[in-house]
Automatic annotation (TrEMBL):
This is AAA family ATPase. PANTHER family: MAGNESIUM-CHELATASE SUBUNIT CHLD, MOXR FAMILY PROTEIN. SUPFAM superfamilies: P-loop containing nucleoside triphosphate hydrolases (SSF52540). It comes from the Bacteria. Gene3D superfamilies: P-loop containing nucleotide triphosphate hydrolases. Residues 87-225 form the ATPase dynein-related AAA domain. It comes from Deinococcus navajonensis.
Length: 368
């Protein structure tokens, strides 16, 4: 089911799974990992941490950092998965919840594809199992007619399952997870049987702060999780380095023929994002209004990325203010009326006054 269609070669796949894209790093870690591994884990917890945070191995293999931020948070996340509690990653949009969850599953189980995308329409069947109705009608209930959910497969194979946006899922469907997480069993009454989770099984769920209150987790379910809150990057420098790193990777995989972005240009975009998000300038002197959108690191990455594409195909191949202005304004002004006012005020009271931002100011004026 998760096989890539035969006609698509791996290098043609638009976005490879983490275990494909970083297969080289994972196999080097595997070969040089001499620490004890929890049952069914591909790597020891320490090696999983190195995979997440980066480092270099004895043989010189360089492991690129996937998560940039607090080491302790990642230690807690990895350690949780070695216990009988599941892991819940919470944070505002764009704080790498899905990204970290994918890499954890790839490093621990070698498989990040056992994924359920939570929505208001997610049904119990997609969390447990469904039926192949043609077979069900012709043969009656049988193991062959059962369609396993990703969670069921993870239980059977002793792998990590992933559930995205858990708090968007209706409460009664969320609660199907309780038996799975506490009993580690999923009854299949139609077959008079049950599936017992194999060692190595665990679950990573993600939830967005912005959805708080939509479908709050029941306290029974909450108790089955250890929660790790992923923060917005602490400092401007951290956020700039996240953006630079991710843009480099994305530009390489999309083969955008542009020079890597100048650091100044990225710094400026990240500064704009941080100031508008915080509602105050970096020097703390000027109070600002915040726009309605989330202005996350993820959006800063796409602004720079889109700017690079413009520069490569319609500019001189080097990212400049002219290339970033259009997508930046698009990211900030989500509501043309309200956000438009916030943006123009920022432009005139902050951007205009910065001596080294003149070209940027002009470019923004031209598209605002
Ligand atoms: N601290 C960080 N370290 C490394 N990458 C980061 C960090 N913060 C954000 N990113 C990057 O931001 C992008 C978006 O992250 P992701 O989609 O995982 O966010 P999310 O928290 O799941 O957001 P949402 O709530 O909207 O689903 C990823 O490409 C990721 O690399
Ligand atoms: Mg996400």
């Amino acid at each position: 089911m998760t096989q890539t269609q035969p006609s698509a070669r791996l290098q043609d796949v638009l976005r490879q799974h983490a275990e494909q894209a970083y297969a080289h790093e994972l196999s080097a870690l595997h070969a040089q990992d001499h620490r004890p591994r929890p049952p069914q884990w591909k790597l020891s917890p320490q090696a999983v941490l190195t995979y997440l945070l980066g480092g270099s191995l004895e043989d010189g293999t360089v492991i690129t950092p996937k998560y940039i931020g607090d080491r302790r948070l990642m230690e807690i996340a990895v350690a949780t998965l070695a216990t009988d509690r599941a892991l819940l990653l919470i944070g505002v949009p764009g704080t790498a919840k899905s990204w970290v969850s994918e890499h954890l599953a790839a490093a621990i189980s070698g498989d990040s594809t056992l994924l359920i995308q939570g929505t208001a329409g997610t049904s119990e069947e997609s969390v447990r199992y469904g039926w192949n109705y043609a077979r069900l009608l012709s043969e009656g209930p049988s193991p062959a007619a059962l369609v396993e959910s990703p969670v069921l497969r993870a239980m059977r194979e002793g792998k990590i399952a992933r559930m995205e946006e858990l708090t968007r899922v209706q409460s009664d469907v969320q609660d199907t997870l309780i038996t799975i997480l506490s009993e580690k069993t999923l009854p299949v009454p139609e077959l008079g049987s049950e599936v017992q989770a194999v060692r190595g099984f665990n679950l990573i769920a993600t939830a967005n702060n912005r959805d708080k209150g939509v479908n709050e987790l029941s306290s029974a379910l909450k108790r089955r999780f250890n929660t790790v809150v992923l923060p917005v990057p602490d400092s401007l420098d951290d956020e700039v380095s996240i953006v630079v790193r991710r843009v480099g990777q994305l530009a390489a995989s999309l083969e955008i023929p542009a020079a890597p972005p100048a650091l100044d240009e990225v710094r400026r975009i990240v500064t704009v994002f941080r100031e508008l998000r915080a509602g105050v300038t970096e020097d703390g002197r000027t109070k600002l209004k915040s726009p309605s959108g989330s202005l996350s690191t993820a959006e800063a990455i796409s602004v720079v990325n889109q700017g690079l594409a413009l520069a490569a195909h319609f500019g001189n191949g080097e990212l400049g203010a002219h290339d970033t202005a259009a997508s930046l304004v698009g990211a900030v002004v989500k509501d043309p009326v309200q956000d438009g006012v916030v943006w123009r005020e920022y432009l005139e009271t902050v951007v205009k006054k910065r001596d080294d931002w003149k070209a940027f100011y002009k470019a923004c004026r031209a598209v605002s």
